[in-house]
Amino acid sequence: MTITEHTVKTDRHTTFYLAAGPEEGPLVIFAHGWPELSISWRHQLPALAALGFRAIAPDMRGYGRSSVYGQHRDYAQEHIVRDMLELIDALGREKAVWVGHDWGSPVVWNMASHHPDRCHAVANLCVPYYTLERGLEHTLTLVDRDLYPEDAYPAGQWDYMRYYEESFAEAIAPMDAQAYRFVKLLFRKGNPEGEGQPAITSTARRAHSMLGMDELPDLPRDVDVVTEEDLRIYASALERNGFFGPSSWYMNHPVNTAYAETAHNDGYLDMPVLFLTAQYDFVCECVHSRLAEPMRAYCRNLSEETIRSGHWMAQEKPTEVNAALVKWLATAVPNIWPRPR
Hints:
Number of domains: 1
Distance between the termini: 17 Å
Radius of gyration: 19 Å
Shape: globular
CATH class: Alpha Beta
Number of strands: 8
CATH topology: Rossmann fold
Largest sheet: 8 strands, mixed
């Protein structure tokens, strides 16, 4: 299945995107997270396209070949949601199924809660509804205090977000200095041995390191998650643009909170929603903690599935992710299933 490259330009923003599948097919838009690219969905695009969907994956704001900005405030959720509205408008569509991962998930949750008329349905990986899009202060109320006692871990697994807020330049300096080594270290499969242990991000401030380590080790590439070509594409984009934009997504919690409070329907989602939990994602930990509880209260048509993977679920376990997405689309959103041509 051929994947093609496209660009949408408006007066305020440029979005680069990958596309696959028939142009008239039902639209599915995939939003990646930090510090990724449209290619993070390289396993999903051809699978959905082969079924007759029009599958789209943009480089999000600050990434790849989309517009990059120089102020933290330029990366607030409200601006990014507007980017996605301009994208779907340029595609000539009223509605899409939106799928997000990591920071792409808050974008999709905000699309669902602020623009339900532009959504057939929404699916997200790893980051549940009513968490990060509501800001860090709200998310801290859901920390598992048995695993993260407040005196030792005041921000729980989210300590790295506090590190960004307090020491942004220090936090991104090692990433900018060694982008290839950083992404090679980052894109790794889940390790079951970490279950029940504090996440490495929980000591970011005291370690003066995003990943709680003195220096970036030069580990071999994890062949179960990325190819050498994948790594080179990620690293090249991050070397060109820098980590300022991607990491500025973390610097807008107060304004994101205010934006979330303007959601329609008191924040309740009535459309079909799919959430995929990563069993071995110890930052977005939804198996043993309360992190997903608000989502279950606010999503009235919710399907959930747990996949035995780490955080980079769509890349580590593509077959399982694709199967879960396709099953949900066929059963929860049957009215948009592609018709034989």
